[in-house]
Design a protein that fits this description.
The structure is a homodimer of 321-residue chains. The first copy, chain A, is an alpha+beta fold and 321 residues long. Chain A has helices at residues 9-16, 62-74, 115-131, 145-153, 156-162, 166-180, 220-231, 241-254, 259-285, 299-310; strands at 24-30, 37-43, 46-52, 92-94, 97-103, 187-190, 199-202, 205-209, 216-219. Chain A has two domains: 9-103, 2-Layer Sandwich (Phosphorylase Kinase, domain 1), CATH 3.30.200; 115-317, Aminoglycoside 3'-phosphotransferase, Chain: A, domain 2, CATH 3.90.1200.10. Chain A has a five-stranded antiparallel sheet, with helices on one face. Chain A has a two-stranded antiparallel sheet with strand order 6-9. A two-stranded antiparallel ribbon of chain A has the order 7-8. In chain A, helix 3 packs antiparallel against helix 7 and helix 7 runs antiparallel to helix 8 (241-254). The first copy, chain A, is globular. Chains A, B: Pathway: Amino-acid biosynthesis; L-threonine biosynthesis; L-threonine from L-aspartate: step 4/5.
């Protein structure tokens, strides 16, 4: 959460001259987004978010993300809509960085989601999967099962220093996941990072989904598994069955799961937990000097994995039997 | 620039229940303010800034700052207006910190002020001095000449490591300033920190003054001297005569300087530069481990002092002869 790139009033005014969104009233750097610099932007035409993409974002991927947001917003999904400039282009450059203006969404991220909020999330997630079904671009998930072994090998030697026995536990998970990872499940555009920070509510009404910068083409049920991890556990690893039940029921009210997806749910949840354990572990072990961002605790996902290792059926996650 | 205190949706909703400003729509931590945590807050009633005061702010001073902002806003000055809760109280507590909601001001801070913007600043500064003339509270300036010697002694041994010869230069300035600091000038409420970040413009129109957390009771002309330092020099120490002329003329269009103030302007400018040199130097030498804030370069003020040491008359700063 930081402003990595300072933007002067002169640079911003020159940038905005190419857009048809009125005169500049105010802009504030906002302390959100681990990867990019974001400004809240207010013009005479309304409220926007201005994002400058920093080094970790692959510029080649930006057209996928931006076209996807535009596609989803056009189909009525409440997500940021990229604003095209007068030349019809959404992706610009500001202060030497790729930069985009998107519409601002009202709403608040919840810390401790209620079952009702989980149900609303499930419905929105299925709505996203439906709205993306006719999206024409494809982006492989470069953080799926094939990436986990290499990720782990870069952190393996230091893993037990983070938590005794962690390396052995991860080796066990990897063996199971690499051998049994499901293939052939229904696939399409998934969000792949729908944590509570990326979902806005006004009261119990879901008002928007943001941060599509991990979106990719993968199994729909894997997206649901990510949400079960992100929304239905406490930091100590306690699973909230009522939240899981509401999340799955909300999803299936819009898009019922196939029998294969139901059967795969436990291993997908275990894989999703390992994915976040591994990326957090690598970040934890590689905090750059002078970092403005506090790394997230990888062990939250080690504790969730304790639950997943013992789960065998979708019912364990709250799906109606 | 950082969010030092995280505020959950639940804590904020409970806090807002005591206020009559509608329902919560969104809030974002903003990367502004070196000392405090600030959120942009949007409710069904409008836009606000929520400030949580962190450790460096003396809680005993908060009533002075908040009453002053209310006093000035009531007299038509464009500054943040503290919002009182249903109990009539502006100062609350949130997440264990003193906390206040103030009205949001539109506008943009300029990096390189034009003479027209300097003139507008001068008018606003004199307007602030006039609007504060019947303010009933008093707060001594604890960063004036009596504080500079003690501040310097805490940094003296390391000063030459920051810039060769710096300790000698500061000793010379201190001797001149302590011997010749003017007494008996017209006095009242001054802002004392009116840097470009604390002044908003929409185009060339000044739309607001913010950040009154150094405000105190001191000589009006010292406030003008701070602005001359903050607005009329480049980082390399170059003085812009046209900006200084416009700033002083704008000020005097509202409140003409007395002959004593005119005569004192060079030494006041030199003192103001030393004040910022010294506080920046102390911060520079005492960056805490894990600091989220980059300290400001003290040597910018060393370079301005080169100019001030050679200035003898108000005309050197652009005042009409």
């Amino acid at each position: 959460m930081a402003v990595y790139t300072e933007v002067s009033d002169e640079a911003l005014t020159a940038f905005l001259a190419a857009y048809d969104i009125g005169g500049l009233l105010s802009y504030k750097g906002i302390a959100e987004g681990v990867e990019n610099t974001n400004f809240f932007l207010h013009t005479t035409a309304g409220s926007y978010i201005l994002t400058l993409y920093e080094k970790r974002v692959r510029v080649d991927d930006l057209p996928f993300f931006l076209n996807l947001m535009e596609h989803l917003a056009t189909r009525g999904l409440a997500c940021p809509q990229p604003i095209r400039n007068r030349g019809g282009v959404a992706l610009g450059e500001l202060c030497g960085r790729p930069a985009v203006i998107v519409s601002f969404l009202e709403g608040v991220s919840v810390r401790r989601p209620t079952p009702d909020q989980c149900r609303a999330l499930g419905q929105a997630l299925a709505g996203l999967h439906a709205a993306g079904s006719d999206f024409g671009m494809r982006r492989d998930n470069n953080l799926s099962v094939a990436a986990w072994g290499p990720l782990f090998r870069g952190a393996e030697a230091q893993a037990d220093g983070v938590s005794p026995g962690l390396a052995d536990r991860v080796r066990g998970d990897l063996a199971v996941l690499e051998a049994g990872w499901p293939r052939g499940l229904p696939t399409g555009v998934i969000h792949a990072d729908l944590f509570t920070d990326n979902v806005f509510f006004i009261g119990d009404d879901l008002s928007g989904l943001i941060d599509f910068y991990f979106a990719c083409t993968d199994a729909f049920a894997y997206d649901l598994a990510i949400c079960l991890n992100a929304w239905c556990f406490d930091a100590d690893g306690t699973f909230h069955h009522d939240r899981g039940a509401a999340l799955i029921a909300g999803y299936e009210a819009v898009r019922p799961l196939t029998p294969d997806e139901v059967a795969a749910l436990p291993i997908l949840c275990r894989g999703a937990a390992l994915r976040f354990l591994l990326t957090r572990l690598v970040d934890w072990l590689n905090v750059p000097p002078g970092a403005l961002v506090q790394p997230k605790d990888p062990l939250e996902y080690d504790r969730r994995l304790t639950f997943h290792r013992g789960a065998t059926r979708a019912e364990d996650y709250g799906r109606a039997a």
